[in-house]
Amino acid sequence: MYSGKTIFAQLMDVVPKYEFQKIVKRHKGNNRVRKLTCREQFICMCFGQLTFRDSLRDITTTLNALDGKRYHMGLSHKVPLSTLSDANSNRPWQMYQDLALVLIEHARKLYGKDQPGLEKAKQVFALDSTTIDLCLSLFPWAQFHHGKGAIKMHALMDLQGSIPVFIHITDGRVHDVNILDDIAIQPGAIYIMDRGYIDFTRLFKIHRQGGKFVIRAKKNLKFYRKNSIPVKIQQGLKCDQSIRLISPKTRTEYPEILRRVHVIDKENNQDIVILTNIESATAEQVAAYYKQRWQIELFFKWIKQNLRIKAFYGNSINAVKTQIWTAVCTYMILIIIHKRFELSVTLHTMMQVLSVSLLEYMTFKELFLNPKLTESMASNANQLGLFDF
């Protein structure tokens, strides 16, 4: 019989203790703390994410009812509701941002070069944002427009393993294109974006720094064609052109030659025009790059459906950012475990099983050994999940 740690304790072991201690010390997170250390705060928040708790009261009531089992989760005492609330409101949320970055680096090393369908020699990223609506009367600092409140979560995703390598949380009024100023461009890397990021000054800056971009063009783009390359119409391609921008503003902002690839999306009955500065790839490869942008859409949908980032446990900006970053840490722990143990279930199934098995004494292999878990995946083809591409 297995006599080791609980499932929850094994999940928390993914978090490097020494690195976490350095982060807490750097931010002085445990200064003047008598009860509920930063690690215990993190354990409580991860427990809430993994078990779908709706409030801090829900979290503390459940944890305090566990008695002896609570010790094996890493909690030495009962968790007072007010103490957890104060911790979320007052302790620096940047601690959990830094912890997420540590977990991201760990995950990227694990996933290595497992990038299906794209050039393995290149790093390929997808950039997008999602809006999280908030009630303005409860979150007055999150002013959006027309009496509504919202925040935005901007993410740059490494398509090797669906790993968010950059996350920035802003108020809802910040335009997506401004985030390009905060991203460190890696020479040779490919950045895939939707047309909300069209800004030729910023795109030319990416080009000068050695980065490559694949972005959807706006309908009112003015250009002249320098030459065309024959394309395979049966593969959904309409044209592959070298162009120059001709409006006085855009030709100043981007004076170099661009490539324009016109794709017919028969499934969704759409014409998609793609702009890129990649010269070596074929038109089919450029279209395949842009299609991979859907992975970041799946990421946003998945975390909104499976993690607690739409309903918040506290109303202050510090509490909201603490909850979002601990949710990101939870997501990173899950994909690290998913890869480390080569689990064949989807992240959605994994999350559902973990929510009712956290206090079981068994290994992950034993927990997900049941073949019915993979059978349910096959029978529910419409279920949204990552790693299903």
From TrEMBL:
- Keyword DNA-binding present in the record's keywords: the answer is yes
User: What keywords appear on the UniProt entry?
Assistant: DNA recombination, DNA-binding, Transposition
Q: Which InterPro entries match?
A: DUF4372, RNaseH-like_sf, Transpos_IS4, Transposase_11
The record's section on Gene3D superfamilies has: Transposase Inhibitor Protein From Tn5, Chain A, domain 1
Q: Which residues form the Transposase IS4-like domain?
A: 121-333
Does the record's keyword annotation contain DNA-binding? yes
The chain positions of domain DUF4372 read 4-75
Q: Which family does it belong to?
A: Belongs to the transposase 11 family.
What is this protein's record name? Answer: IS4 family transposase
Q: Which organism is it from?
A: Natronogracilivirga saccharolytica
Instruction: Write the lineage as a comma-separated list.
Output: Bacteria, Pseudomonadati, Balneolota, Balneolia, Balneolales
